[in-house]
TrEMBL record:
It comes from Megasphaera lornae. This is Homoserine dehydrogenase. Its cofactor is a metal cation. PANTHER family: HOMOSERINE DEHYDROGENASE (PTHR43331:SF1). Keywords: Amino-acid biosynthesis, Methionine biosynthesis, NADP, Oxidoreductase, Threonine biosynthesis. It catalyses: L-homoserine + NADP(+) = L-aspartate 4-semialdehyde + NADPH + H(+). PROSITE patterns: ACT, HOMOSER_DHGENASE. Pathway: Amino-acid biosynthesis; L-threonine biosynthesis; L-threonine from L-aspartate: step 3/5; Amino-acid biosynthesis; L-methionine biosynthesis via de novo pathway; L-homoserine from L-aspartate: step 3/3.
Amino acid sequence: MKQVSIALLGCGTVGKGVIDVLLMNGPIIEEQLNTKITVKRVLVRDINKYEQMNLPSAILFTNNFQDIIDDEEISLVVEVMGSADFAKECIEECFKRGKSVVSANKDLIADYGIPLLKLSKEKQVDFQFEASVAGGIPIVRAMYASLNGNKIDEIIGIMNGTTNYILTQMTCRGITYEEALREAQVKGYAEADPTNDVSGYDAARKIAILGTLGFHSEVTFRDVQVEGIEKITAEDIRNALEMGYVIKLLAIARQDKEGISLNVHPGFIRKTHPLANVADAYNGICVRGNCVGDVMFYGAGAGSLPTASAVVSDIMNVVLHEHIGVTGQRDFVSHEAKLKPQASICSPYYLRLLVQNTTGVLAGIATVLATYHISIRSLIQKDETADIAEVVLLIDQSSHCVVQKALKELSELTCVHTIANAIRVIEV
């Protein structure tokens, strides 16, 4: 039986999970590859901390990356550190020394993935990153290996478990955003500083990665228009349900004749759509190809073993490529991206306005919308006995630019107290 030695950069939740999966499923892996994969070295900051953990005694812990890069027995390095800049330096050095790399680092891939892919091809080594998007869901390889015979038109998904947990609790239990966030933090779904998740940045990095793969174009995190869930209230959730929708934080990549658009924002989605039933911390991704039609991927988007499952799959793929001599042979990106102007992206909208409860208010709102040729699908006025009434509208498909101009003019009406929210309605 062949022997392959690998090294880990980092041994946190995912790194420990990789060791566990290799031990747990070693016989299955060896049977498929006729190869025994051994973790020889692990880079950590505090060696004493990890030497006291229940890990195989044969693993050599080090706090010096040079120990790994100089070890000629190690042909594959698994990067699970999470820090983008230092990880990039390490990976570049691995490539230059002829070592393939598997990474679970979405920040790294979203920011530096394209130049790293080019360098790996130049050095004839593999660079694989299945676990960088949606944990254990096999979406990355599906994009470049299973759906690669299609022209991908759309990728839309729930790609952040924290925000999906928060919105699920708000929907199912009627609690506020603040209450749901505190609960997510207590349960470990959300960090003490949840900004990366609730503001949409985590999902934005993931959709940038999938956009690069699906559209064969050089897109990055900076090309994604991002809006988080901080403004979603219990009132918005109730209104959505009454209208037959649920609210989800959606990551959307589309490609049409005008170019590529990449967005992360809350969206109204019909209760009957499969993504509407993706609950709690789970992820779901729908892909539309011109031949395959619509396909959906669903599962655990994070966690030690689910994410490690994706990492180990990449390890096995690299080992197979090493055996048959085809490392560094895959191209992911073929051309620069033509980005569609955000102002021209069209969709229906849900609007919630707080207005003075006086006569003529609805006429004034309708007049402004008519000025911008925006049609009203439905209009409901609530709390009519209060001094401040709530007006809820669904408007027909309109461009982002036109809607923003109309909202600005509405906010200047003396009868409008505030525009509480404006949320896109996703028609898929």
